[in-house]
Specification:
heterodimer, A: 247 residues, mainly beta, 9 strands, disordered N terminus, B: 138 residues, OB fold (Dihydrolipoamide Acetyltransferase, E2P), five-stranded mixed β-barrel, 3 helices, 6 strands, disordered C terminus
Chain lengths: 247, 138
Amino acid sequence: MNSALILIAFAGLAHAQWLDYPSKNIPRKADGKPDLTAPAPRTPEGHPTIDGLWVADDSRHLGNLAVDTKEVPFQPWAEQLFNERRAHPGRDDPEARCLPQGVPKVNTLPYPFKVMSMPGETVILYEMFYLYRQIFTDGRDFPKEFLSPSWMGYSIGKWEGDDFVVTTAGVNEDFWMDSIGHPHTSALKVTERFHRSDVGHMQVNVTIDDPKAYTKPWGAVIKQHLVPDSELLEFVCEKNLDPQHFK
Amino acid sequence: MRVMKTLLPLLVAGWIPLTAHHSFTAEYDSKKPVELKGTLTSLEWVNPHAWIHMEVKDETGKATKWDCELGSPNLLLRNGWRKDSIKPGDVIIVNGSAAKDGSNIANAKTVRLVDGTRVFNAGSSGDPGTLGAPAGQP
C-alpha cells in the first residue's frame, strides 16, 4: 500500500517545491515559517499595509454572494431574473465564456490577487483571467459621467483608520456578481473595506448599493489569507470548453 | 502511514464539488461516479481547464474515446503537476463524475498512473478554494 503512495505528487508535498521563493518583509518564526499571526505591518503614515498576495479562504461567496444574508432586498424584476438564472445553473454565466468577473466578484475567486500600493494609487493584479484594477488614492472624486462603463469600473480609495475603503462605480451590466447569478445594473456602487487583522489575514467587507436592482444596500464579508512565498501565475482564459456541455 | 495521513484529507477535500468559474452541477452528476482505465491520447494544457483525452477499451477490446475535465493548469501546477506528468501512451486511471448528458465526458477528481506510482489530485470539481489546498493552511 505504502509503495503505491510514496511518490504522491500533489498538494502540500510538492507545493513546497513550487513557487517557493521566500517573500521578503514577512516576519518569520524560529523555524523559518511565516509568522501569520504577527501584527500587521504598518506604513510610516501609521495604517496597516495590505500589500501582498492574497486569496479568498473558500469559495462560498463565489458561489453565492448572499450566502450569509438572511433576505436579499431584490427589486421585483431583479428577483425574477435571479430565479431565471438559478433555474439553469451556470448556463448563461458570462464567466463561463471567459469574460471578466467584475467588482465585487473578484474578491471571491480561488486564485490569488496581488495588492501593490504606491503614492496616489493602489493597483490590484488578479491572477484569474489576467485582470487588474487601478484604485486612485490621490483625492480625486468620480468623474461626472462614466463615458464607457466597464467590467472593473472606476475605483477611488482612502484610508479610514485601519480600513482601506474602496468605492467603485461605472461598471457595466455584463457580469454576474456571483456564480448563482445575483444581478446588478450600471447604477451599482460597491464599497469594499479591506481590513487586515494580522500578517496572514484580511477581510473584505463588501456593500452592494444598487437602488435599481435592490431596495436597500446589502453585503458580505469575504475572508482572505496571505499567500506567502509564492507568486502570480499567468492565467489567460484561452479556451473554455464548458459551454458546449451546457444543456 | 505518515503519507496516508497527508493524502486522505486532501482526497476528501477534492471530492467536494465547489462552485468555481463554471457550475459543476450544470454539467456533471456527482451521483454518477466513474472509473476510467485507458490510454492517454493527449493532455490539453489550457486555461481555464486542462483536459485529458483518452481511449478506454471494454472487455471485447472495443475502444471508446473519453474527455476528462481537470482543474486549471495553474491549479495543477500548484498541486505538483507538470505539463509532462502524464504522457501520451501512459495507461491511467481517472476517477470522477460523469456528465449529466450521458456523453463520454467526465469531471476528474483523481488521476493515477496504472502502475500505482503516482496519484494526482485533479482539482476539477470546481477548483478547490485554496492554493494547493494544503490541509490546515491558516
